[in-house]
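FORM 7B: Structural annotation worksheet

SECTION A. Query
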Amino acid sequence: MSRNTIKIIDEATALLWKTDVIDRLRLMEMISDPMEQDLIRMLRPNYKPKAHMLLDLDINHTDAVFLRKGMAKLYIVYADGSYHILHIWIENEIIVLYEMFRKRLKNTKYYIQLIEDAELVSISIDCMEEIYNKYPVAEKLTNHVLIHKDAHRLKQMEILGYKDKSKRPAMFEKMFPEFCFRLTNEDRAAFLGTGESTLFRGKS
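SECTION B. Predicted structure
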């Protein structure tokens, strides 16, 4: 998809994408018909191109996003211009920094950027507050999302715990086969806390 191309989503496609989100949530917890209808009304499908920023500095984090297709990265930038990737989201995962989202906080240090062209379905914090107030199961669904993210982060921390950085690329491929080869070498190094040259030494 060209970065300058705007793809229009027709009504049937929009409904399909919304239904995909609800089907994914149903794998975690039972959802009532009234909650489903509210979500259908509130969810907003859209396309965004590779490199699009979902969260930038000095922006309030007010949307949670279901990543139907594509990849996204959460990262921080250091004073010297280098960056470190803290998290990677892939398809069928929910992009959200929960505390910042729930408290409607202004972002002061994180970036969330698409790694690939993406199909997204978003919901605002205003709509989510309505869901939380009406349906207690929404809190359980949120816990599932956060537990999955924590498990992912622990695997990354295990890799970063290796003092011999040349071992990290092989561990990365073993522990994250679902996306390791979809990253550029620059992003792989930023995820592993190494230089790009280490990626190749680890292969030797």
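SECTION C. Observations
The mean pLDDT is 91. The radius of gyration is 18 Å.

SECTION D. Sign-off
Analyst initials: ____
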